Amino acid sequence: MKKKDYLAFVCLLCLLGCSKPDINLMPEKKFPVRFSLRLNTEVLPFTRALPPDPPLDPDEVCELNELCNTMDYIVFKEEDTTTPIRNRKYDLSNVDFGIVYDHLSPGNYKVVFIAYTSCVTTLSGHVMTFDRLSDTFHSAFTLEIQSEESLTKDVSLNRIVGKIEFVATDVLPTEIMCLAAEITPYSKQLDVITGKSTVPLGSTESYTMKYEYSSKQKGKTNLLFEFLTFIPSPNEKFDVETRALTASSEITRQRNINDVTPLANRTIRYTGQLYTPAASDDTFDIEIEENGKWGDTIENTF
Question: How many structural domains does the chain have?
């Protein structure tokens, strides 16, 4: 066979092989999506003075960048929430912090937004682990993409942490160096789909945090110790053990508070003696305060 005939034969085979395009290799069409995030209208800063300030304006709303500096955008296929197809992180260096742009193929998706402050996080499946807890906000919803038109969606974020406060009515003695609080169970992991803590039923995993006092605080009353917590699944509670410690780690006063039930976007305040040794374990006064509209305080004694 002559060289020219051979080349012509090869070209013919190539043309025949390419005559029918492989549909599976064609790029999947994607449509633009724009999310605009804002905080729920009931969300206000947790910070509160003692005694209580006058009620805040119920129409006052915080901007997202006032309470958060980092935001995660996570997307799952609706039928598979174990493996995210998107996991993007945004911070205040992004000019449009609070606005997310994306392109998604037709289908149904589970979309998650989580906003927080200066935490290191890792995502494994649908469980996010935090190195510490900060004020945290969340939204999760199902999104259907079926139109060729661009989609714009407003997203309202809700606070998903509660605050526990301990206010000491007794004077801080000079020998007390710190207050330790052991919380059982306690989790720094979050199910991003439900927005709830991943503490399993009956868990005994504990976490201890300490607050060290300065010399200026010695001899004062109404000193505050507080921490944030994710909200456990329904009917889940935790116990708190507080210990007032001297410089030599001697315990001068230990208190046990059982069945603490945190509430999202609320502060639960325990008021009582934390430092002074006592013959009997007296009670705490409890205040549950609305952090959103800051309505009337509900007081309980146990």
Answer: 2
